[in-house]
Amino acid sequence: MYHYVTTQGGQRSLYGLRILEIACGKGAAAYLLKQDCGAAEYMGIDLCPNFIALARDNFRNMQGVQFYVANACELPVKFDGYFDMVICLDAAHGFGGEQGVFNAYDSLFSSIHKTLRPGGLFMFEDVTYKQFHPELHAASKLVAKGGLEILFEEDLTPHIAWPEQSMQSAPIQSCFYIVSQRTDFDDTY
Ligand SMILES: C[S@@+](CC[C@H](N)C(=O)[O-])C[C@H]1O[C@@H](n2cnc3c(N)ncnc32)[C@H](O)[C@@H]1O
Hints:
Blueprint: H1 2-7, E1 18-22, H2 29-36, E2 41-46, H3 49-58, E3 65-69, E4 83-89, H4 105-115, E5 116-129, H5 138-145, E6 148-155, H6 164-169, E7 172-182
Parallel strand pairs: 1-2, 1-4, 2-3, 4-5
Antiparallel strand pairs: 5-7, 6-7
Helix pairs in contact: 4-5
The protein binds S-adenosylmethionine.
Residues 23, 25, 46-48, 51, 71-73, 89-91, 94-95 line the site of S-adenosylmethionine.
């Protein structure tokens, strides 16, 4: 999934890119993006300090890899305009907490927009839950509202082998994939 989403099914090279991963967990994607795909820099952020501590430990010997504890919806100003690509996989549905799945999307997308250089790409994959959000395409409307231009959308639902057990405990309805781009050329930074 990571390779498919970040390279748009093998169509995009990651070579030499500065990549920010939102909600990186323990940072396993750094191997693929930095080592295998040749990204120049990989930065992973996650809200969970324990995950970031483990990631730092695992990657302490890899050049050009950094991890920070940060909230995806309030990214530090020092990241502004820096990244060629921001990625977020299988995570944003949890950012709204008990308020609901899409609650945090507004602040998430404007936060991501700021961190991208003009022309930079946001590769986004997430799942939605039946009880919260029946409309797949509402996600892309929210991405666009955050100032990003949608380049490509795909419904990945038919390609996912949904585990029987998780369908019973949390009925996932759909999995979507959106590629968007920062197209404004703001000269204030
Ligand atoms: C389901 S895991 C996905 C991890 C990884 N992207 C993957 O696909 O393996 C969700 C991650 O989101 C992180 N997370 C939850 N809320 C967050 C927030 N507001 N900002 C940053 N990370 C957050 C959690 O700590 C967790 O590591």
